[in-house]
Specification:
The protein is of the alpha/beta class and 605 residues long. Helix content is 37%, strand content 18%. Helix 19 links the parallel strand 23 and strand 24.
């Protein structure tokens, strides 16, 4: 096995990293840095450079440190990197630590008035008179702190070769064409760029952004927005939620899209969005709506899922369709509300007491956030059950580059719905009677078909109350058949088989981006892997077949307990000794470097 440096850096002969480095803007939460950071991301994207933006922000509203990471990768990698090369050190409280972590040869941009001691000799310091420039701009006192961030945008544009025309176009986009606001912000961009040209003309230019064509035909979007758009296309008509980070922006996006895509000629929207008093009420509302025949959803996070446990059991046992998006964050308890994890896998799969198993979808990128946005409603109606979709903060609240979404290629699947006219087919219709042998029964909608009690208590095939052991066992047997039917209906896993592979990786969700890069790094180190990406629970035959191919299967996930590894061992006990958990949970997205190091260490034992 050869040793390799675990990095994707590719320098030119002059030692310059072109379109392959990381920028970090270290600012104060509430200082208006979002516009500055999004402007940089959009400008780089419009220059054709593959780029990804990740926001690390505190759970309070104002005053604590926030970091925004922008990764350029000409090879198209979009996972988080642990290192960074260009720093805008705009937070005095974290400045020393931020500079200490800057890669050797890096660039530090900081406000000249802070009189920073330049203690490192292996980096380049670029001082910019932020206070004087803001004063010269004529910004009102209320705007000074916000527009000050445009200074580091201008300095970076000059140092890195970012096209100023693209910066201005991005400002126009984010500021909705408001000329005065655009002019004010762009004034500071130009001032800072001119300052760097005049005073730091001889400074090393170790990093450069050059135009590419890699982003042609692509768009940038956040996962929560993609999910909301998918739900709109899936026919959602009722949404109830209680605000909680990091899911609120999904409902915000749903509201915005409804105003554009769900408006009748009289101006009324066809989508009812209700802010409930808490998560219990939100769950109750969408279950009631689902029972009435509406396509309904809620969006929440781990603490909200906890509160929805009993209602989820009711919908599962009464067999009422609804969709629950869990934008996962760090737990237990309140945990780290603005950090990411994949810690709700076991919780949602088995949510509620008793023998409950839910259908869970696991989107890995923007196209799947969109697709599962509409497909979840088809599955909910078809299977007559709650469908959980596990996104996370990294997918949901960060900007990702993606191919445009594909319009759903099938009509809405409403499942087995009977009307009064259909009853002749059945003879004696029973709400919980398995006619087709797949565990899925026929339901009626209120006022459109025969009446029944939607029971969370023990019941017979005909929805009448029963405590008889044989009725109870018969119902659970049928629900188990339905769960097995779901194995074939949910999005199937995607396998990438390498003929020379000696081991394999299983992963899911937002870890996919890091896995793609880690496999290349492992191959450079002499280890070829096959890859099996799970896209839903329950697991199926494809995963069983894949696991039979390899003696060592690394299950990579962003949680502490290795939850999917545990589930795989329970579902496929014959392969339990082949499963090696590779799990990590520190609130940050997984990196390819950590995955590579972890697998290399285990392979060398």
């Amino acid at each position: 096995m050869c040793a390799v440096e675990l990095t994707t850096d590719k320098r030119t002969e002059a030692g310059v990293l072109v379109n392959d480095f990381v920028i970090i803007a270290a600012t104060v939460n509430g200082s208006g840095s979002q516009t500055a950071n999004n402007t940089l991301v959009r400008a780089l994207f419009k220059m054709g450079i593959p780029v990804n933006g990740k926001n690390l922000f505190p759970s309070n509203i104002y005053g604590l440190p926030t970091w925004y990471t922008i990764r350029l990768s000409k090879d198209g990698y979009v996972a988080r990197r642990p290192d960074y090369h260009v720093l805008a050190a705009m937070n005095a409280k974290t400045q020393a630590e931020d500079i200490e972590k800057l890669a050797s040869g890096g660039v530090c941009i900081y406000p000249e008035e802070w009189k920073l001691k330049q203690t490192r000799t292996d980096i380049t310091y670029i001082s910019v008179p932020v206070r004087d420039m803001v004063k010269e701009s004529g910004a009102s006192p209320a705007l000074k702190d916000y527009v000050a961030n445009m200074v580091y945008v201008g300095a970076m544009a000059e140092l890195l070769g970012i096209d100023l025309a693209e910066i201005k176009n991005a400002l126009t986009y984010f500021l909705k064409g408001k000329a005065k606001a655009v002019d004010l912000n762009y004034f500071l961009v130009e001032k800072a760029a001119a300052h760097v040209r005049e005073h730091f003309a001889d400074a090393p230019r170790n990093f450069r952004a050059e135009r590419m064509t890699a982003t042609q035909g692509k768009v940038m979007i956040e996962g929560n927005a993609a999910a909301a758009l998918g739900a709109i296309f899936g026919g959602v008509s009722v949404a109830a939620w209680y605000p909680i980070t990091p899911s609120t922006s999904m409902i915000d996006a749903l509201m915005d899209y409804a105003k554009e895509l769900r408006v009748e000629p009289d101006g009324k929207t066809t989508l009812a969005i209700v802010q409930a008093e808490d998560e219990l009420a939100a769950a109750g509302m969408i279950i009631g709506a689902g029972w009435m025949g509406a396509r309904s959803l809620t969006a929440t996070a781990g603490p909200g899922i906890s509160l929805m446990s009993e209602f989820s059991g009711l919908a599962y046992f009464a067999e009422v369709p609804c969709v629950i998006w869990d934008i996962q964050r760090m737990g237990p308890s309140t945990g780290l509300p603005t950090r990411t994890s994949q810690g709700d896998v076991l919780k949602t799969y088995y949510l509620s007491h008793g023998d409950t198993r839910h259908v869970v979808l696991l989107p890995a990128d923007m196209r799947e956030c969109f697709e599962f946005g509409w497909r979840a409603h088809d599955l909910a109606d078809h299977l007559q059950t709650p469908i959980f979709v596990l996104s996370d903060l990294d997918l949901g609240m960060n900007l990702w580059m993606t191919d445009p979404f594909e319009y759903p290629d099938q009509p809405l699947d409403r499942g087995k719905v009977v009307s009064f006219e259909d009853l002749e087919k059945f003879g004696t219709w029973g709400r919980y009677k398995d006619v087709d042998g797949d565990g899925i029964t026929y339901r009626s909608l209120p006022g459109q078909g025969p009446a029944y009690f939607a029971r969370g208590t023990g019941h017979t095939e005909y929805a009448t109350y029963s405590e008889r052991p044989d009725d109870w066992t018969k119902n659970l047997d049928r629900l188990a058949r339905k769960h097995d039917t779901a194995r074939h209906l949910v999005p199937q896993p995607i396998s990438q088989i390498a003929d020379e592979a000696t081991c394999a990786i299983i992963a899911y969700g937002s870890s996919d981006a890091a896995i793609i890069e880690a496999r290349d790094m492992l191959k450079a180190a002499g280890i070829t892997t096959s890859y099996h990406r799970l896209r839903a629970l329950p697991l199926g035959e494809a995963t069983h077949e894949f696991m039979g191919l390899y003696e060592r299967i690394y299950v990579v996930e962003n949680n502490y307990l290795g939850q999917m590894a545990q589930l795989l061992k329970m579902e496929y006990p014959a392969f339990a000794d082949r499963i090696i958990s590779v799990s990590h949970c520190d609130g940050l997205p997984l990196t390819a470097r950590w995955i590579t190091d972890s697998i290399l260490e285990k392979e060398q034992k």
